[in-house]
Amino acid sequence: MLLGCIWLADLKGDWSGRWAYLPAQAGTRYALTHCCCDYAVTDPTRTRRQWDNARDNYRRDWIAEFGGWPQSGGRNWPGHHIRDLGHGGHPTDPRNVFPIPDAVHTVVNSAYPQCYARGSRWSTIGPDRPYSD
């Protein structure tokens, strides 16, 4: 059963260059969301340990594909698990982890319990056109 959804990030990709010797531009938007469903609550201790053991290799693979792992003040951003470890999220699935600034990670992690609580603000319908640009 769906309990609510959280909008985690808005990934935007813009490109300009040449195609067939003509100037060209393209772009895309992708809303990264997590929908809280009636997932069974799990003990994240084992999966947290898996993530801790795999973190350096995960970041190395990320860097090979996307470039440097984001940092602030010389510290790596945390890897956020979209489907959280306490509700069965896979600790090392590349589609389940993305870098997020530490301060934002704290806010998002505090919103997850609200999302799983029935009747929270995350269960209301959002705007029809959330983009302002």
Summary keywords:
alpha+beta; single chain; 133 residues; globular; two-stranded antiparallel sheet; 2 helices
Task: Give your account of this protein's structure.
The protein has 133 residues and is an alpha+beta fold. It has helices at residues 45-66, 102-116; strands at 2-19, 22-37, 71-72, 75-76, 79-81, 97-99. Helices cover 28% and strands 33% of the residues. The strands form three sheets. A two-stranded antiparallel sheet has the order 1-2. A two-stranded antiparallel ribbon has the order 3-4. The radius of gyration is 18 Å and the shape is globular. The protein has a domain at 39-123. The longest helix is centred in the middle third of the chain and has 22 residues, at 45-66. The mean pLDDT is 84.
Estimate percent helicity: 25-40%
What letter string, H or E per element, gives the SSE order? EEHEEEEH
What low-confidence regions span 5 or more consecutive residues with pLDDT below 50?
none
The largest sheet, given as strand count, sense and whether it forms a barrel, is: 2 strands, antiparallel
Query: What value does the Rg take, in angstroms?
Result: 18 Å
| Mean pLDDT across all amino acids | 84
Structural class: alpha+beta
The count of helical stretches stands at 2
Q: Report the β-strand fraction as a percent range.
A: 25-35%
Note the gap between the termini. 34 Å
Number of strands: 6
Helices, strands, pairings?
Elements (H helix, E strand, L loop, with lengths): L1 E18 L2 E16 L7 H22 L4 E2 L2 E2 L2 E3 L15 E3 L2 H15 L17
Antiparallel strand pairs: 1-2, 3-4, 5-6
